[in-house]
Specification:
The chain folds into two domains: 108 residues, Sandwich (Immunoglobulin-like); 326 residues, Aminopeptidase (3-Layer(aba) Sandwich), CATH 3.40.630.10. It is built from ten helices and 17 strands. The strands form four sheets. Strands 1-2-4-3-5-8-6-7 form an eight-stranded mixed β-sheet, with helices on both faces. Strand 11 and strand 12 form a beta hairpin. The longest helix has 20 residues. The two termini are 36 Å apart.
């Protein structure tokens, strides 16, 4: 009896000791402190001053329209490139869009402004992407003449992309980071469709996409809720890519809530709440707002892990509205409605996640769960990641009813036996390095 008791105590102690409190990486902590509300305000004020950034607006006027706006963003990226030690390269990637008799009334040159911060490890193909859309609209998507400030939709997301690039370009990371201000979002996600398809054809290893869209206002119309302490992260459930091929396995394993986007959303929450004070990351378990879409969707449709980051309480008197005053309400997406402290926190959320991912080792390979016999313990094993220096691994677990991971258990080995039943828990494994930067989690597959 004593021998059995000692064995049980040793078994449990091994895992209790392995649990750890996650510490902040001092470098990421410093970078988050560098996010400036004043810089964000300056970017948005300049974007608003272009009058309109409708995708169909003028591309020849040096001071007004989408052409002037994208040239200004490119110039900012070039300035940042001069401080990057040759690692940041920027350009405008263009394609011609033909009329569709709906949101495109004439042929137009579509331009995405792209800046790539090359990773320090030439053998590491991983890419992490952050986007915001440069274009905006009035009440009609084809109105390319009238003023459309677009301070929040999506000046806020574009400002976040610029600020993340400004800070990150002075640092070095193993993984590559792409910063992009896309066009054509209001015409049907055209810029994101073009870019995601191009990256797919190039077989780029896109591990995560953070879409920043409408993230700078802290209050809602109708309900009049004012709160700058919460932000939403939207993620799809069932994968949009090759669902028919994988649906039997997903159902058999009960993984309807564990696709790539959902894992990225949980990662964003944990990492964001670690580094950003006074901000709760609210996971919304749908791909986007009800019956609406965003620039992460084309990436999701091509099999990439992509999520949308959006303010908690939207104000619809300020989205897709002609500037006017009716019944005591001032309509329009104006700079005066932006809460720049809130935008600073939300920008920091994207920043800390991008950096944590780009510094982390790759995900562990071939994560397996043993199913040879029925048991109330769970045996997991895996292989070292292909890229990156590792300290060890975190094994994550949560009850089947939990929305996010409840425990993290560290092990330096590539296997572990846990006193938790696979009938009652979900598991995942992520690689971690010496500075505590974790890869995205990998859900184990049955070992057959």
């Amino acid at each position: 009896m004593k021998l059995i008791l000692l064995s049980i105590l040793f078994f449990m102690a091994q895992h209790i000791q392995a649990q750890t409190t996650i510490q902040r990486d001092p470098e990421i902590e410093q970078m988050v402190k560098e996010v400036s509300a004043d810089s964000l305000k300056s970017y948005i004020q300049t974007l608003v001053a272009f009058g309109t950034r409708n995708t169909l607006s003028t591309q020849r006027d040096p001071k007004r329209g989408i052409g002037a706006a994208r040239n200004w963003v490119l110039a900012r990226f070039h300035e940042m490139a001069s401080r990057s030690g040759g690692r940041l390269h920027a350009y405008i990637d263009t394609t011609t869009i033909l009329p569709d008799k709906y949101r495109i009334d004439r042929a137009v040159i579509l331009g995405n402004v792209v800046a790539t911060l090359q990773g320090s490890d030439p053998s590491d193909p991983r890419v992490f992407l952050i986007s915001g859309h440069l274009d905006n609209m009035r009440s009609s998507p084809t109105d390319s003449i009238g003023d459309a400030p677009g301070a929040n939709d999506d000046g806020s997301g574009t400002a976040a992309v610029l600020e993340c690039c400004r800070i990150m370009c002075r640092y070095s990371f193993p993984g590559t980071v792409i910063f992009v201000a896309v066009s054509g979002e209001e015409q049907g996600l055209l810029g994101a469709n073009y870019m995601s398809e191009k990256l797919k054809k190039e077989n780029r290893d896109i591990e995560a996409v953070l879409n920043n869209d409408i993230m700078g206002s802290n209050n809602s119309n109708e309900t009049n809720i004012i709160d700058n302490t919460k932000v939403r992260v939207f993620s799809e459930g069932l994968p949009a890519y090759e669902t028919e091929k994988n649906i039997v396995s997903i159902r058999n394993l009960g993984l309807e809530n564990d696709g790539k986007a959902r894992q990225l959303a949980r990662y964003v929450k944990e990492t964001g709440e670690r580094y950003i004070d006074n901000l709760q990351v609210v996971l919304v378990y749908r791909n986007d707002r009800f019956l609406r879409g965003g620039d992460h969707t084309p990436y999701v449709q091509r099999g990439y892990a992509a999520v949308r980051i959006t303010e908690m309480n939207e104000n619809f008197t300020r989205q897709h509205q002609n500037l006017r005053s009716e019944n005591g309400i001032n309509y329009g997406d104006l700079t005066e409605h932006i809460d720049f402290e809130y935008l600073r926190k939300n920008t920091g959320l994207s920043l800390c996640n991008l950096v944590n991912l780009a510094k982390a080792p790759a995900m562990p390979d071939s994560v397996k769960l043993e199913i040879k016999k029925l048991s109330n313990s769970t045996y997991l094993y895996w292989q070292k990641p292909r890229f990156g220096e590792i300290k060890g691994y975190y094994v994550l677990l949560r009850e089947t009813t939990s929305a996010f991971w409840q425990r993290k258990i560290f092990t330096p080995k590539t296997e572990i036996r846990l006193p938790y039943s696979k009938d009652n828990y979900f598991f995942a494994v992520q690689a971690v390095n010496e500075t505590g930067n974790e890869s995205l989690p990998v859900v184990p597959m049955p070992a057959r």
